[in-house]
Every structure is written in structure tokens, then in C-alpha cells.
User: Fold this.
Amino acid sequence: MQPRNMSMSGVVDLAAVKAAGEAKAKAEQARAQRQDAGADAPAASPLVIEVTEATFESDVLQRSAEVPVVISFWADQAEQSKQLNAVLERLAGEYRGRFVLATAEVYANQLLFQQFGVQGVPAVFAVLAGQAMPLFQGLAPEDQVTEVLDQLIAVAEQRFGIVGQEVDPGTAPAQPQEPAPPRPATPQELALTAAHDALDAGDLSGAIRAYRNVLADEPANAEAKLGLAQAQLLDRVQGVDPQAARTAAAGAPGDVQAQLTAADLDLVGGHVEDAFGRLVDTVRRTFGDERDTVRVRLLELFEVIGPDDPRVVAARTALARVLF
Assistant:
């Protein structure tokens, strides 16, 4: 029972683009509601919660549309996990609502333990817009923990428009307010939604056209860039025989098109490092127009995974070494 939009394996997640758009819309609506209720009114949610399998949907998945949720898996007999929880709880107060800490005792939540693929405790994950990502495992020094939290908050804001809300940790929950009416969608948002819907429906050519239309008006639109890269990737591998393509690539290391096709299949199958490594090696072996073709394809695959992914960062470094 993998919750929708949770992707930790590296496999291309077709719902990720739509999740980012939905998360931004929900975050904007939540901020509008807070402004209508009195601008700087404190948030009602506690900064530290104990999550269970029964409350995971409401306390983590739904909440992650408005604020980054950090999940700490711990066990009573694992002293390091309790020490880490104490540090995270204090930091949750110091960060004043920029993230929410959810602690999960592993023996009481075996299903969550298995779903997240936890290998041991302490183990810390984050959920943004319903998507899970590993942060670190083991008792990390506090300066490293704060560095990871700062990166998480930056990604939440830049990629999903999720900023949380600074609050006084000691403030009592506010009284619930009447929800503000949703604002009308802009033409650009409607066009982006149509592109997401086409991608979800498997209409790849329609999605490609729709994303290009959005980018024609908004060349810097990150959602449209990501959606276009995903749609083009899936369009390229349609009808390709994976076994034949990989055999061809193995038998002809200098065949640029064979390497590009194999890299696409690697990425769609979740073998992200293999895809990146294959193309970096191909750049090393090629020159002129062929080299530039491979370099551009590699940059497109970086868009699919996301610029902040550590695998992308490592591959960019490797590409720079080859080029320069």
C-alpha cells in the first residue's frame, strides 16, 4: 500500500509534476486563508506530532501540501534514536513552523517501517506534496542535521511553493476560520493543468504540445520544463524492445543513438546512475555534433530527476570533468 505520489525508488513518477502543481495551489490557498483570517495569525498545527499508520494520511500526506513534514523513525531500545528525536524536537521549535516533525515508533508502525524501506533506526525521511525522500540515517551531528533541514526547506519552496508558516511554538491553536473561496485559475495554470492531464492519460504527443505552449508564454516555468522532459522521455521509449536496445548498446559502445536509447530505458526503469554514467561515458568517447547531442540529452534527463537530486549533482560534476 504505497501512498499516491510517494516515490523513493528513483523510478520516473508520472504524478510528480501534477503533485507539485497541486501543492503550490494548496499552499497559495492556505496562505490566502491565513491572510483573510488576520495575516500573521499563528498556525493551529503543533510542530511535533506522533504519527501512526491510522493517522499517516491526515497528519503527514495531507499536511505535506502546506509544510515539509520530517519523519523520524525510532525505537525505545535504540538510545541514539531518542537522542536524535530530542535534537529534532528542539530544532522544530527553533525553525518556528518551517517544518513539522512527525515521530514514528517502528514496532508500533511496522507497515510504515516497511513502506519506507527503513534499514535501521534512527532513520529520517521527509514528505513534500505527498512524495517521500530519505534524508539521513544514524545519529548525525547537529550542524549536519540543520544543513539538511535548510536544503529541505529550500527545495520545498523552490520546487513546490511550500513555505510553511513561522509561528510561536507556545501559541495555542487558533480557532478554525471559514475557508476562503478558491481564486480563479489563470490561463497559464489552466494550460498547465491540461498538460498534466494529458500526461496522466498517456496522451504523450498532446502533453508535449501543451507543455511547449506553456513554455512559449513562460520559458522559465519549472513545472512545464519537468513535464515536457518526462513526456518526451516516455514518448522516446514507446514501442522500444528493452532487451534488443540494451544488446545493441552493449555491442556498439560508439553508436550514439544506441547509447541514448539505452539511457532512456535505464532512467524509465529507475536505474538513474546507470543512465547518467552511460551518457557521461558516451560524451567522453565522442566529439563535435555527436558529443553535443549526448550532452543535451543528459541535461534533459537531469530535468526529469530534478536539479537538487544528489545523483544529478554527482553526474553534473562528472560531466564537467569530461568536458573541461
User: Anything to note?
Assistant: Residues 16-38 form the longest helix (23 residues). The longest strand covers residues 131-137. Confidence is low (pLDDT under 50) at residues 1-17, 39-44, 171-177.
